[in-house]
Amino acid sequence: MRNFSKSIFNKIVSKDVRIILRQGLNPSLRIVMLMILATGIAYPLLLVLIGDVTLPFQSTGSMLTLDGKIVGSKLIAQEFKTEKLFHIRSASNSTSTVDPHISPEDAYAQVGRISKATGLPESTLKTAIQFNIEKNKVSNVLVFAPPYVNVLEVNIQLISGYPDVYHEFANRNLNGVS
Fold it and tell me: For 173, which DSSP code?
């Protein structure tokens, strides 16, 4: 069968065309393979290596820890169900369900609920919010981002700062469930 198809090809295509195809196709295939290796394998690996060396926190997912345990990413929202912690905005108010930030107004609106659930003064919670806003301004070089509160970071700050109030989160995830 193979010889049959080869003989048909030889009859249809002249010898000169076959030579041109062979001479033109081999370098083309080599270039395609070289480009696949360069842009599909070598370049991405080089970028990963550069990222690991120059930005290790960001290249590993910007993971945040609490008591030495990874509790989440600074870049991806987590839903908190307990009344003692700040909540992310609802999916109906967010263009993406993974946005880890809320506006300062959204954070301040939750202060009463958290104060009632924890017994912490509202002024303490407002200070935690303000500190988080200022920290984010500095990390964004003061001008590149609007004010925001990173929900996971402010919750970690509260749990770390008030272990007697948030004792149920010791050795557990941030939703208080083992």
Answer: -
